[in-house]
Write a structure and sequence with these properties.
The protein is mainly alpha-helical and 107 residues long. 79% of the residues lie in helices and 0% in strands.
């Protein structure tokens, strides 16, 4: 497997996490994607993990996790758009607009 050949690379974990999520095994997918994110802390992977966290737990906890992650790793627009979109789904327009504004500023 990709993970066995290159254990420090995230690709095998990403593929496994995506497959588990597609099968509805969200808890397992979350664990595997967390391993991938530890190996490569980049925004697209954080947003992918956020989607799984949101699907399996309280959306506000997932938002808090991603917001904290972005403060520690990368203040990029895609992270704030993902947070804003989730706030919109929750009907929290003011919070959504705040994150859309940050996304525009982050460019």
């Amino acid at each position: 497997s990709e993970q066995a050949r290159r254990p420090a690379a995230p690709l095998g974990y990403i593929l496994e996490g995506d497959a588990l999520a597609a099968l509805g095994k969200l808890e397992e997918a979350e664990s595997v994607l967390e391993l991938a994110l530890q190996r490569q802390p980049v925004a697209p992977l954080a947003v992918r993990l956020f989607a799984v966290k949101t699907a399996r737990s309280d959306a506000l906890s997932a938002i808090a996790w991603l917001d904290d992650w972005s403060k520690r790793h990368a203040n990029v627009s895609s992270v704030h758009v993902a947070i804003a979109d989730q706030y919109l789904r929750l009907g929290r327009r003011a919070d959504a607009m705040r994150h859309y504004d940050v996304a525009l500023q982050a460019g």
